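Q: what sequence does this backbone want?
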């Protein structure tokens, strides 16, 4: 019996599109700047206010804008020119990072101003993310979409591999202000590439929409789209528990292991390197396993990595654990994102992505607060243990919420068919007409 599962496209096939390659490189550089910023901000907070809650709030400040603005951002990306929206958001983040850099260099940064400007960067990211991911189908063939989504994850995780370590080195040599300034510069490349891109006008047979009705329509669509619901539920449950690893890693690095900023960057870099390996093996795994099986197994691996973070005191062993966790992380993120993009039609795609990003980043933001409070009460090790056990236990309930991707579904809008042209106009008394369909 032959395997009916379709052959996966090469991971690198979308890079044959010159604009996609240019945008991918520019975004990789910007992502490196963003991860350097995250490392610098978290490390700076441990000096301004080292309580676990305040350190966790740095992640919350960057994530929570998406919870409140993600759906609106997705609706906006569906109804206006995505290129203009993307350029505006990049400039917004450039200005925010520049202000934070100047305040830090002048020793004027407080814990409140750090959180406020981190929040401002989060607002820009909230409006950028749905629009950025929604242009992928305009750049690559539909069968290449999983590879394009994975490459986007590769770009993000190249940054995670390089950015934290580089950010730690820059913090050690020149201070957090230099990190924030480099992040501001990193947005320039994306602006240039987008400015030079002139996409063809999007054909849409549906009537134009206004923002508030578009938001309501997107939510109504998600209410009845079972495949989209499954992807959102699985994403939300996973990130609720998985966020503990990201929120508490700075504390593990600094206080459990006695590492400096560069050591914290090495741990994050191990996760990023694992993500690169995950990207390389994902096409192979997609050919040999159903997406639901792949997601479930990857969640188990990430749960083990979370527990290891709390209990392994050997840095080499912990690096290996984080590398394996990074493989699982990339596979999960690419699988969830591909599911969301491929089970919805194009006219609501950015709104579906907005909902996905809202669930993901909102779960990250609020769960980070809870894990920070739990760490203050029970300790970091116990909190990470509870997170890992909770992730495993959640899979027992998620067996009733299977997920799939829809790469081979035809979800293009159905438009009125043209009236057939008659070769000969029959007389009304000419007799019966045979119609073959």
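A:
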């Amino acid at each position: 019996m032959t395997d009916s599962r379709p052959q996966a496209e090469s991971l690198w096939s979308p890079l044959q599109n010159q604009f996609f390659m240019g945008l991918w490189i520019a975004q990789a550089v910007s992502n490196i700047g963003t991860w350097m910023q995250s490392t610098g901000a978290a490390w700076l907070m441990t000096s301004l206010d080292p309580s676990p809650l305040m350190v966790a709030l740095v992640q919350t400040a960057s994530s929570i804008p998406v919870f409140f603005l993600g759906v609106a951002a997705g609706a906006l990306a569906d109804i206006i020119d995505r290129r203009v929206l993307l350029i505006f958001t990049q400039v917004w983040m450039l200005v925010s990072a520049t202000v934070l850099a100047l305040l830090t260099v002048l020793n004027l940064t407080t814990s409140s101003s750090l959180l406020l400007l981190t929040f401002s960067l989060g607002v820009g990211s909230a409006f950028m993310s749905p629009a950025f991911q929604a242009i992928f189908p305009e750049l690559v063939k539909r069968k290449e979409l999983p590879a394009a989504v994975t490459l986007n994850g590769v770009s993000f995780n190249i940054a995670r591999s390089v950015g934290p370590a580089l950010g730690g080195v820059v913090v050690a040599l020149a201070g957090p202000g230099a990190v924030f300034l480099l992040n501001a510069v990193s947005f320039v490349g994306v602006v240039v590439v987008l400015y030079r891109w002139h996409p063809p006008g999007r054909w849409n047979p549906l009537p134009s929409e206004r923002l508030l009705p578009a938001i309501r329509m997107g939510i109504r669509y998600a209410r009845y789209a079972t495949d989209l619901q499954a992807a959102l539920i699985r994403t939300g449950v996973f990130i609720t528990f998985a966020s503990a690893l990201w929120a508490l890693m700075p504390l593990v690095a600094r206080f459990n292991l006695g590492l400096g900023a560069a050591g914290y960057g090495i741990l994050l870099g191990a996760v990023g390197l694992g993500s690169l390996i995950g990207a390389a093996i994902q096409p192979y795994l997609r050919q040999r396993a159903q997406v639901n099986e792949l997601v479930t197994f990857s969640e188990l691996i990430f749960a083990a990595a979370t527990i290891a973070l709390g209990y392994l005191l050997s840095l080499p062993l912990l690096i290996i654990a984080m590398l394996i966790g990074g493989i699982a992380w990339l596979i999960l993120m690419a699988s969830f994102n591909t599911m969301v993009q491929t089970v919805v039609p194009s006219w609501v795609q950015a709104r579906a992505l907005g909902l996905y990003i809202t669930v993901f980043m909102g779960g990250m933001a609020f769960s980070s607060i809870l894990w920070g409070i739990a760490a203050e009460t029970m300790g970091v090790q116990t909190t990470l243990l509870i997170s890992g056990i909770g992730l495993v236990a959640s899979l027992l309930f998620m067996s009733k919420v299977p997920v799939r991707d829809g790469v081979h579904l035809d979800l293009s809008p159905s438009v009125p068919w043209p009236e057939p042209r008659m070769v000969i106009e029959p007389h009304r008394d000419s007799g019966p007409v045979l119609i073959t369909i």
